[in-house]
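Ticket opened by: R.M.
Priority: normal
Category: complex prediction / small molecule

The reporter submitted a protein together with guanosine-5'-monophosphate and asked that the result be attached to this ticket for the collaborator who will pick it up next week. Submitted input follows.
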Amino acid sequence: MHVENDIKLGFKDVMIRPKRSTLKSRSQVSLERTFTFLNSKKTWTGVPIIAANMDTVGTFAAALVLAEFRMLTAVHKHYSVEQWQDFLHDIDPAVLPHIMVSSGTSDADLNKLRAILALHSGLEFLCIDVANGYSEHFVTFLRRVRAEYADLTIVAGNVVTGEMTEELLLSGADIVKAGIGPGSVCTTRVKTGVGYPQVSAVIECSDAAHGLNGHVISDGGCTCPGDVSKAFGAGADFVMLGGLLAGHDESGGDLVEQDGRQYRLFYGMSSDTAMDKYHGGVANYRASEGKTVKIPYRGPLAVTMLDIQGGVRSTCTYVGAAALRELSKRTTFIRVQEQENRLFN
Ligand code: 5GP
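Result attached by the on-call engineer:
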């Protein structure tokens, strides 16, 4: 039996050490980054925060708000081609570079993807993800899509180790999505015992990706703006958020009222709730690996985005990074056994 003895770290295990800085104000910090992607050769500029492709988060309504912040939305895969057509009908072309189309990995998914991509030539990004990005079927699908769409920027995942990051990039991905099990409504670690603490996953995957000129998304596990900064500090080029963006006006999930307070349902994409909704129940060979929660209604998404943006900008000033691009170079993590003071929580 082989046991790896290196300690693997999650967001709760580290903090970022402050460094001398000449920056006067967080308003001086630019959060925009420009990337040229490995396989598509496309160049993109924007703020590299992505709304997750969950039907409660990656909605068309959220996409319009995030595009105003120059951020991205991985629009979930459950919209029909007709819904996409309506959405794209009179869309501001400036929104398109901030949208990712998502797809599953079946033949039916591929046909639907073809129909969506045929609607508008301005769609630049595709997100193909499965819970287990290590599967051969997944890699074969990725290769098929790349063979068909040479200049599409393709996100593929999810994985947590360097060697599989390399394999996905060499199989046609531009951006590898890293994260197995850290999600707020994910139960993979409990159901299967499989996972990888997120900070270490991002450090290891981004090290491998950057060696090949590929890029990495840290996906899942951010509970506050500070975690978003830690993900960037660990080397993530992009950070994907689910739970932090759920429960807003623009989110999906039923609104429910209880004791005079409003809540929105939020659930994992492989929870019983999602499987009942899209597949008529949980197939009996698999366990549901997501949970359903009720979160207090949070108002407009724009307010939360300002808060996240403000937090990351502030991190940059603490370490003297004038631009987000410099954050990981200027990050030194310290291992800790405490985070915030919870006296008033
Ligand atoms: P969060 O930001 O909420 O911590 O994590 C969001 C991520 O959780 C998503 O982008 C996705 O990778 C993951 N996720 C979403 N639904 C499920 C699910 O039902 N099961 C698992 N294992 N992960 C999920």
